[in-house]
Design brief:
With 438 residues, the chain is an alpha/beta fold. Helices cover 39% and strands 22% of the residues. The structure holds aspartic acid and magnesium ion.
Amino acid sequence: MKVFKFGGTSVGTPERIKSVSKLVSCGEPKLVVLSAMSGTTNSLVEISDYFYKKNDAAASDKIGELEKKYFKVIDELYTTKEYKDKALDFVKKIFSHLRSFAGKEFTQVQEKDILAQGEIISTHLFTYLNHELNIDTVLLPALDFMKVDDYGEPVMSAIEVDLNKMLAVYQGKKLFVTQGFICRNPKGLIDNLKRGGSDYSATLIGAAINSEEVQIWTDIDGVHNNDPRVVNKTFPIAQMSFDEAAELAYFGAKILHPATVLPAKEKNIPVLLKNTMDPKAAGTTISNEVTGTGIKAIAAKDNIAVINIKSSRMLMAYGFLRRVFEVFEKYRTPIDMITTSEVALSITIDNHKFLKEIIGELMEFGTVSLSENQTIVCIVGNMNVEHKGYAVEILKALENISVSMISYGGSPYNITLVVDTENKNKALNLLNDNLFKF
Ligand code: ASP
Ligand code: MG
């Protein structure tokens, strides 16, 4: 069985829901994981915020607004009165549940219940549609098998046992639907896998049922080799390894979070990124297979601050780096990239919240300078050291751009540079022109 996950925009309108139904209704057995319709979870967050602030009137307005949206969806989604009524009944129950939080104590427990309703609605609407179209479909409530521990981490063993038990009841069935994002915690209360968590649901489910493949359907045709907003000639990458994908993930290159792909990586299940708007397009396959060598993708991240610390005390000293890193730890600020010389150290951060405090404390170690408006450029691929020449090619492409940091060797999958943000577009284009053959 394959797992197919559709994000919010892929089920964002009645039309899109209908195309998803068409897409999954034939062929091999599938377990379909759905997000809430796009915009819904944000609206539910807003509603919860009003409840937190005891602003029941505003919450009620927002609930009414969202309910109206769903009435319209239902009207367009079904053709028969029977299914319009069924869906209306269901959705009205959910909205009266949302209204029931008014005037009561409101904590995270209630908020998580509210946030779960988007996926509960989308999966029910989808299942009703399939039933109206005579497509045999079983809805598996994620709250009955998706479990997290006290730290919000998925409990794989429990998920595996409970989900497989549920599936065993439906021998011979070929199409299952469940909610992404939502789960239960050890207290048995509704919880979630954090915003954007339905991709995670999909890979957890894939691992739990030993799926042959997990397909993540969004509205783009996979991972591109470079930023299409900056560079004209980009193309989707057909195949990349989990390690290469993890390097790119930090750059928000519309890709899965490293934690998200972990269950798939561990069970060696390929993850395909597919485009709902263009289902025939190949998309990107992420797997444990490292195919080919060479540079595959370039990504950039702006709004980087580079902190440089110069100190003669660093010369031959031990414990110096630890003391420097402790400052960042104290201010809960992750370091992204470091380069060192014998008497100096450059560090990049993207969280500027405690920049002043951090610099204040670092001045105890030596001379500190700060460059803001910097951009990290990351070149990802399979660049095992015995394949020589990659660094040369990259630096040659950038010969007319000033590069202030270079990091190479931490993994064979990336070379990372820092440039001034004003040179970013030029750098991405030069790298694109020189590193890829079109
Ligand atoms: N609906 C949830 C969100 O918007 C989960 C997801 O779509 O991945 O964050
Ligand atoms: Mg998403």
